[in-house]
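Sequence in, structure out. Go.
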Amino acid sequence: MFGLFRRASDETFAVQKTDVEWRRALSPAAYTVLRQEGTERPFTSPLNSEHRQGQFCCAGCGLPLFSSKTKFDSGTGWPSFYAPLTPRSVGQRTDTSLMMVRTEVHCTRCGGHLGHVFPDGPPPTGLRYCMNGVALTFRPGAA
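Output:
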């Protein structure tokens, strides 16, 4: 169900919890993705079919990350966006797991692993932020 990849990070984040606190605060699936850099199976997230106006937030700390205005159907099976809500909403780091180089995306407030960004998205950015649905929550309302 989930692939597990864990890398050391020198970054520090505003929201910090012990491993026990993260396990208590998150569902097992969200913990695996956000804290252990796992990946949910494609086409399993209810957020794939979420088309209301609103914001997609970090499931770990609630930080707004993406607007529904930038969501698109990438056909990959994961919620996809062509831009974050603000340039400071998400951070990036190089991911060299799986014998390839990818760009990992994480929450800038808690450091939770969200997914990866690829250069094959639609205009205007040409980027595809391919996010794990269990790493996000949806807040309906203003986008």
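Check: The longest helix spans residues 28-36. The longest strand covers residues 90-95.
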